[in-house]
Amino acid sequence: MVILEIPTNRQVDLVLITEKISSAVSQQGWQDGILTVYIPHTTAAVTINENADPDVVRDIVMETNKVIPFEDHYRHMEGNAAAHIKASLFGSSETIIIEQGRLVLGTWQGIFLADFDGPRRRRVFLKFIGS
Amino acid sequence: MVILEIPTNRQVDLVLITEKISSAVSQQGWQDGILTVYIPHTTAAVTINENADPDVVRDIVMETNKVIPFEDHYRHMEGNAAAHIKASLFGSSETIIIEQGRLVLGTWQGIFLADFDGPRRRRVFLKFIGS
Amino acid sequence: MVILEIPTNRQVDLVLITEKISSAVSQQGWQDGILTVYIPHTTAAVTINENADPDVVRDIVMETNKVIPFEDHYRHMEGNAAAHIKASLFGSSETIIIEQGRLVLGTWQGIFLADFDGPRRRRVFLKFIGS
Question: Which domains does chain C have, with CATH numbers?
Answer without folding.
Answer: 2-130 (2.60.120.460)
